[in-house]
Design brief:
Structural class: alpha+beta
Helix content: 25-40%
Distance between the termini: 163 Å
Order of helices and strands: HEEHEEEHEEHEHEEEHEEHEEHEEEEEEE
Oligomer: single chain
Shape: rod-shaped
Strand content: 25-35%
Number of strands: 22
Length: 387
């Protein structure tokens, strides 16, 4: 009888010990709350991790999403792209999965836990707008032969972000729409208002100086109301800038000097301006007679002292076209044909010889504008050329 009781007590002790061991194992497993070995969240392996560790790994994967176009790449966080995840909800699901005793034994089966991704379109738009400038620079580098406009395909970009089935892949080609930009000529149509040509001798250094000044003038634009300055446009005449020595007038004599010949360019321009009926602001005569324009129609310049200036009193830009053909220098003025339409402009000089005192020629210069039955005569000034 005592033996039976002893045997029963031993069996009960063994049974209780087994129950305690199993319970202890379950308790340890519950304390660790580890996810099953083969557990993934949208392609990210979170197996054998706690819920908190799994969330941290997913967040790290979403911290750098890369888009590329051509040779350019841009890196964004999920937050910058407006991509949001309900992290509390995900952590709750992960904890429940970790506590599930049935799943803990399914080590040979892949367990995929769903995750909900939401996109804040306003936040995404802000990031896209900030990307626009760099994107168009990359587009120009990619499409060198054409002028293109490039925009981000927001519809496809949103689809890419919403369909991130594998969060371990975070590099994508930026979806774009490329359109070729047709160049629109916004430049106002310009017509010839006036042109004037002079002939220069075949003197090498003087020709060099003339060409330098012509190149500086050609293509110059004068806005409505703006005063054009020859000295400001052409700049200093110096050896450093390539100018040579040629004859200039100093103290009533022709002597070698840097930039000689420049005044022929100024005088050619002066006559074109007169014929275009534009107002003269500043003009100086030479102290000796010159041969390339009639007396009274020359314009002398000297950087820092004498300048030639005129004003654009039209409603549109004026453009100067200056060029050389052979030994001929031509300067044309382009602008709105309406300004000169129906008008005939001529330049008249009245020359008189002074024989007493300081002998020379005194010349009066006039601009005559004919429009219909009307005629306007403008006195431009007197010039004196001593002998």
């Amino acid at each position: 009888m005592h033996l039976k009781k002893f045997f029963a007590k031993c069996c009960l002790a063994i049974l209780m010990q087994g129950i305690f061991l199993v319970s202890g194992l379950n308790f340890a497993s519950a304390e660790e709350n580890l996810l099953p070995m083969e557990c993934h969240v949208r392609g990210i392996d979170v197996g054998n991790k706690t819920a908190a560790e799994a969330v941290k790994k997913i967040q790290e994967s979403l911290s750098k999403i890369t888009f590329s176009y051509g040779q350019k790449t841009w890196h964004f966080s999920a937050e910058e792209l407006g991509l949001t995840v309900n992290w509390e909800q995900l952590q709750t699901v992960l904890k429940q999965t970790a506590k599930n005793p049935y799943l803990s034994y399914q080590q040979n089966y892949l367990i995929n836990i769903p995750i909900s991704l939401e996109i804040d379109q306003k936040k995404l738009a802000q990031t896209i707008n900030g990307l626009a400038k760099n994107l168009n620079q990359a587009a120009k580098a990619t499409a060198k032969e054409k002028e293109v406009k490039i925009t981000i395909d927001t519809v496809n970009l949103t689809k890419i972000l919403q369909n991130l089935t594998d969060l371990s892949i975070n590099e994508f080609e930026l979806p774009v729409v490329i359109t070729e930009v047709k160049k629109v000529n916004t430049e106002q149509k310009q017509d010839l208002l006036a042109t004037f040509t002079t002939v220069f001798p075949n003197q090498r250094d003087r020709t060099v100086n003339i060409k330098l000044a012509v190149n500086a003038l050609n293509g110059s634009r004068i806005k409505p109301g703006e005063v054009f300055s020859f000295n400001k446009t052409v700049g200093p005449r110096s050896y450093e800038r390539g100018y040579k020595d040629a004859k200039i007038i100093v103290g009533g004599e022709f002597v070698p000097g840097v930039g000689g010949g420049i005044c022929q360019v100024t005088s050619t321009l002066y006559n074109a301006v007169l014929l275009a009926n534009l107002p003269i602001v500043e003009r100086s005569q030479h102290s000796l007679a010159i041969s390339y324009v009639p007396l009274g129609r020359d314009a002398a310049v000297s950087y820092g002292s004498k300048d030639f200036k005129f004003r654009n009193n039209t409603t549109q830009d004026l453009k100067l076209k200056a060029y050389i053909q052979g030994n001929k220098l031509t300067i044309s003025i382009l602008g709105d044909h309406k300004y000169i339409e129906g008008k005939k402009v001529t330049i008249k000089t009245v020359k008189g010889f002074i024989s007493t005192g300081k002998k020379g020629y005194r010349v009066a210069t006039y601009r005559i504008v004919e429009s219909g039955n009307k005629q306007y005569k403008e006195f431009l000034g007197h010039s004196f050329y001593p002998l």
